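B., you asked whether I could sanity-check this one before it goes into the benchmark set. Here's the sequence:
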Amino acid sequence: MHRLDARVEHRIIDGDRACDAVAAIGDRDDVARWAGVFAMLGEPGRLAILLAIHHAGPISVSDLAVAVGMNDAAVSQALRLLRHQQAVVAERDGRVIRYRLTDPVVGELLTRVRPAPELHHGSVADVH
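And here's what the prediction gave me:
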């Protein structure tokens, strides 16, 4: 079944290949969602924060700031965006708020970026 609109105004060289390309792209909403994930991962500070949370989390803003070499305000701003993207969630632990990764797909991508680092204190990320 051809996925090409009969009203296409572009010149088509190979209709079957063009049809397969449309099928390969899939749902445009899914493409937009993935583009958002890659944009989120594309900024070095956010990527460092996500790697720290993924491999050593749940972790506080202050501890993240030390780990990634940013100030608390910059980390908080990045975490706000990561919460909006539903990649992390904030959880209260007494008076401290700790962040953990919530998106297992992002976790899989982060594991590809930095597989199983040697942790010196036995931290284990709590990915749900």
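One thing to flag: The longest strand covers residues 88-93. Otherwise nothing jumped out at me.
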